[in-house]
Amino acid sequence: MLAFAGALSTSLLANNSAGDRMQSPLHIANLQHNPRRAFETLDANRDGYLTGDETAASRTVHLHFGVLDQDRDQRVSIVEFHRLPGMLEDVYAE
Questions:
Q1: I need a labelling partner for 79 at 20 to 30 A (CA). Which of 11, 32, 40, 86 fits?
Q2: CB 76, CB 69: distance < 8 Å
């Protein structure tokens, strides 16, 4: 699973220009403004939940996995994932 996540991350960030990275659904700005798209991108097996392995494609999401997993079932639902934009605003607020 980690190999898949690495390949996904590499393919999403294959282009080196900042503009291309901004288009990635896993770019921090897109995590904040379109969390559903980011969730769907990370949900490799399309089961409606993210595991730690699936979140490895996004360092930001992976680092917040433990906080997002409110019910401590070792997976993050779309409802739990929608907390991410607010968390990122708190972390990156000036």
A1: 11
A2: yes
Query: Tens-digit pLDDT profile for the chain (94 aa)?
Result: 444 444 444 444 443 344 444 468 788 888 888 999 999 999 999 999 999 999 999 998 999 999 999 999 999 999 999 999 888 887 766 5
| pTM for the structure as a whole | 0.70
Residue written as tokens 């990275």? 21
- What tokens were used for 16? 């080196």
Category of 42 on φ-ψ map: left (φ > 0), alpha (ψ -120 to 50) or beta: alpha
What's the CATH number for 2-92? 1.10.238.10
